[in-house]
Amino acid sequence: MELLFVLVIAAAIGGIVRYALPGRHSYGMLLLPAVDVVATAILWVAFTWIGWKFDGGWIWVVAIGGGALITIAVELLVWRGRHRGDRHLLHELSGGRV
After folding, report:
1. What span, in angstroms and rounded, lies between the C-alpha atoms of 26 and 96?
2. Given CA atoms 47, 61, 70, 34 in this order, what sign does their dihedral have?
3. pLDDT tens by residue, 17-62
4. Among the residues of the chain, which ranges form H helices?
5. Which residues of 22-47 are buried (b: 16+ CB within 10 A; e: fewer)?
6. Measured between alpha carbons, how far is 88 from 32 in angstroms, rounded to an integer?
7. How many CA atoms lie within 13 A of 61 on its CB side?
8. For residue 81, what are the CA distances in angstroms to 42, 92, 95?
9. Which of 17, 22, 66, 82 is 20 to 30 A (C-alpha) from 50?
10. Which of 36, 27, 15, 32 is nearest to 82 (CA)?
11. Where are the transmembrane segments (predicted)?
12. CA-to-CA distance for 56 and 88, rounded, in angstroms?
């Protein structure tokens, strides 16, 4: 049951990250919430496997915070790669005039 709560919180944080950082026109609306949910779920399960208790506070902080950091990193990588690809395509399609 706690995993469900953690994943709902992660999806909300992923939505907040989408609107807090620039470049949201470069990817779909559900990309960052999905990345945050998957990353947080993997972290949560990994920490429970190594023995962290689900009712402890640190597993919540580390899993949710780690998922948010991974989401921010993915957003910055996607935005930078998309921006670079768009510039390259514009240069290529304009025949080098731009």
Report:
1. 23
2. positive
3. 999 998 888 889 999 999 999 999 999 999 999 999 988 889 999 9
4. 2-20, 31-49, 57-93
5. eebebbeeebbbebbbbbbbebbeeb
6. 25
7. 3
8. 25, 16, 21
9. 17
10. 27
11. 6-21, 28-52, 58-79
12. 49
| Residue the block writes with tokens 């240069």 | 91
52: helix, strand or coil: coil
Return mean pLDDT, the chain: 93
Check residue 23 and report its DSSP letter.
Answer: -
Tokens of 71: 């989401």
Q: Where are the domains of the chain?
A: 2-93
**Whose structure tokens read 């989408």?**
18
Q: Can you give the length of the chain in residues? A: 98
The model carries a pTM of 0.87
53: helix, strand or coil: coil
Residue 25, token pair as written in the block: 């026109």
Q: Which residues contact 9 (CB under 8 A, 6 or more apart)?
A: 40, 64
